[in-house]
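Table 4 source record.
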Amino acid sequence: MSINLEPEDARILLSIENLRVRIAGVDVVDGVSLSARQGSILAIVGESGCGKSLTALSILRLLPGAARMAEGEIHVGDIRLSTLDGKGLEAVRGNVASIIFQEPIASLNPLMRVGAQVEEALTLHRGVSGAEAYRQAVAMLAQVGIADAERRANQFPFELSGGMCQRVMIAAALICRPRLLIADEPTTALDVTIQAQILDLMKHLRDEVGTTIVLITHDMGVVAEMADEVAVMYGGRVVECGPVDMIFDAPAHPYTRLLLATVPKLDGDRKSLLRTIEGTVPGADAWPEGCRFRNRCPLASEICGTRPPLAPVDSVGHMAACWHSSQVGELA
């Protein structure tokens, strides 16, 4: 399949428009629109259950069985993913776009040696096989921090630790140097040294071949270090998005402000309690009308019973869905 990667606006590689993902009649992802420029890193953040991973899985049409894409358009370059058949998706997955899954043990084939699993994409998409595919797979395993990579390449997943399986999965995702990399909590199982190594490798891939990275994470430290743009999700919706410096320096949604306040400060009082966000995230079938954060929000008022639009705030490209954006800076 011939793939053209030149969209009308060549600066945009990934475009998601009005995405709705439905489970049992409930829109668990509700009208999400996002875009990512060629060579940029877009971080999607939020608490568990906010729709981050379902949004990411929708891009490559990898939603779990209970979920379905009810509405929306997703483009990678000029490829309209919603129109692709099985062969078309096969040509994109692992080649044009790759994904690093959150659960490495569940994502690797237990009956295949890990080196062969890293080689698969090379053979399918690049026509590389035999000794050369094996050589490149071993080199990539070493590049993601696996010591004695040649010996490990000949082992099965059950012979490796969880963190090592995570690195194998990352190697398989990166082997074809994709134009789009979706990374769903890619460093969760890794120690801080290997985490830094993997993040540096992803940055190198971005700098070397212009890979666009969508980073799903709850770690705001990783976001500050890696991201160019940030989308904050809550209740299946994007509640704020914009350049990373604006999100950190001048958040315009109460949820973003409170989320940042929960991050430990290195220069803070070591005996002080960590901040928390009052209340809990309601289930998808119990989200309130209007703003879905209003039952936990210190600024909530009557108007919050009406859904706020995602609208521009105080800088170019910075948007928030809040009726009280001008008051967010007053929150302690």
